[in-house]
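Quick note —
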Amino acid sequence: MFLTPPVRSGTAPVAEAIERFLTDVADALPTVIAGVVFLVVAGVGIKLFAVALRALLRRTVAGESPVYRRFVSTIVAVFLWFGVGLSFLSIVGLDGIATSLGTAAGFVALGVSYATSEMIADAVAGVYLLRDEDFNPGDTVDIDGTTGVVKSIELRKTRLTVGDDTVVRGNADIEKQWTKIDDVDAVTATDD
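Predicted structure written out below.
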């Protein structure tokens, strides 16, 4: 006598798959809810931080173009949101993806910083020149043999009026080797 396997209806495998899917969703739901709550709290925190940062930048670099203040606040926001994204992936159990993205972003940031190192040096020197009370628009300065009147100081470059021409120099070059002519004349007059 032959034994025949029990006959299953065609809907049984579908019902099992749906039941397994719903069980997996129910098991993952607390983790997903925790991740969404984290995103909402982090979003509110980043928005509050961005408002405070913009207010701080308005007070500290009031004379600068609003473009520079927006640029700085955007860069900070991008870094914060990237960190939130990586944290969210970790919270929902995707640690491997978060680690891979973090490592890849580190290499990309290293390449970008190397490629933009001169621009970054100009921007840092520009902050120093903007804060320097001895280097202002209207001052006569000598920069490596070029004598002119400071027309404007921007974040990355400074414009000098030399005769009828406008000379533009990167702030990193200026910050290293400028001399205020008025101070030199005053020292020469007192030495006589």
